[in-house]
Amino acid sequence: MKGQDSDVHDPLTDPRSEIVDLPRDAPAPNATPWAEGQADPAATVEARARRRFGEGALIVCDNLVKIFKVADLEVVALQGLDLLVDSGEMIAIVGASGSGKSTLLNILGGLDVPSAGRATVAGHDLTQMGRRERTRYRRRTIGFVWQQTAKNLLPYLSAVENVEMPMILNGSADRGRALELLDTVGLVERADHRPDRLSGGEQQRVAVAVALANQPEVLLADEPTGELDTATSAEVFDLMRHVNSELGTTVIIVTHDVLVSEQVQRTVAIRDGRTSSETLRRGRLSDEGEHEIFAEEFAVLDRAGRLQLPRGHVEALGLERRVRLRLEHDHISIWPDVHPDEDR
Ligand code: ADP
Ligand code: MG
Q1: Rounded mean pLDDT of the chain?
Q2: Are 87 and 100 spatial neighbours (Cβ–Cβ below 8 Å)?
Q3: For labelling, which of 9, 11, 122, 193 has a CA lying 20 to 30 Å from the CA of 94?
Q4: Ligand 1 proximity of 147 Cβ (cutoff 6 Å)
Q5: What is the pLDDT of residue 41?
Q6: 94 lies in which domain range?
Q7: Is the pLDDT of residue 164 over 90?
Q8: What's the Cα-to-Cα distance from 99 to each of 32, 107, 246, rounded to whole Å?
Q9: Up-side HSE of residue 236: CA atoms within 13 Å toward CB?
């Protein structure tokens, strides 16, 4: 029956369409209002869309792009990265070398500016900040810990002087508070030691105290345990967890360490400059009635509705170029272009 009108398949109007954006029972514009007390589905959709824009989140990265120009070459380090972090969260960021983790952290730390997109941290718009606000932001809103222990501390100052330095720069020198912070990181007895007399792990713990000097809302750490052995890494990581749970500081830690990513509630994986998946760890009761932690990996859906299918899934079904989608009542099915049950 080819060529007849009844066979023209318009996905927007044809009820047989397999690609559907909205629930079919959503009210048409100007239709009878929903009964009182009944949730208006359109309003819910709208509310969800607002939430996805990051309302209420402490950190919002919205379609973040960063392009580095090196001679005639352009390197796209971030290609439309979305990330939301709530106040008080502690998350790990993982990803292959070169995937854009440091670029993201440097932008969040106010050390670099994005080429496009939106980045907001604790109400500061990182794309609009002038020089003065940027300096204040770096001193007060965030604390930064680098992988290279030598980069975190001034070599000619003692541990306590290093911790006090950000307070001095902020116009509020406080030796007592510096000592308290060293106590928090378990190093008060090393207060007078210079960095070269501290072990790598001790230097990173002092670095955490330095980062916390001005009570930042966010602690950013770029592979802080990358140069440490496993046992020492665990100590530094425990300290970060303590900072998160006891001081309520929001913590973002970039790491290669599987042990670290296994101990945070949320691990965000970055692939090719985009967030590709999130692993959530949650508690539940096992069949034997015992509390257990289980992890579940989710694909990340961006605001345009795009998601990255895991490579394994794509290969297993030989998905290529076009796929068929069908909206079921509580999920969406995806088939290869050629559907085995298809009428031919
Ligand atoms: P990661 O921290 O995940 O290893 P980076 O954020 O350091 O990744 O780098 C992401 C990409 O951007 C890489 O291709 C890297 O070579 C490039 N890149 C990072 N910083 C610069 C820079 N300052 N100039 C040019 N290219 C850069
Ligand atoms: Mg890096």
Answers
A1: 85
A2: no
A3: 122
A4: no
A5: 56
A6: 88-106+130-278
A7: yes
A8: 50, 15, 32
A9: 33
Triad 298, 304, 309: Cα angle to 5°:
35
Shared domain check, 264 and 341: no
* Residue 222 alpha carbon to ligand 1 centre in Å: 13
Nearest to residue 118, comparing CAs of 59, 63, 190, 168?
Answer: 63
Give the model confidence (pLDDT) of 222-248 as tens digits.
Answer: 999 988 898 899 999 999 999 999 999
Ligand 1 centroid distance, CA of 67 (Å): 9
Residue 304's pLDDT is what? 80
pLDDT of 341 reads 59
Instruction: Phi first, then psi: give them for residue 307, nearest 5 degrees.
Output: -140, 155
Model confidence at 35: pLDDT above 70 = no
Q: Say how many domains are in the chain.
A: 2
Whether 273 is in the pocket of ligand 1, judged by its Cβ within 6 Å, is: no
Phi first, then psi, for residue 13 (nearest 5°) are -115, -20
Cβ 143 under 6 angstroms from ligand 1: no
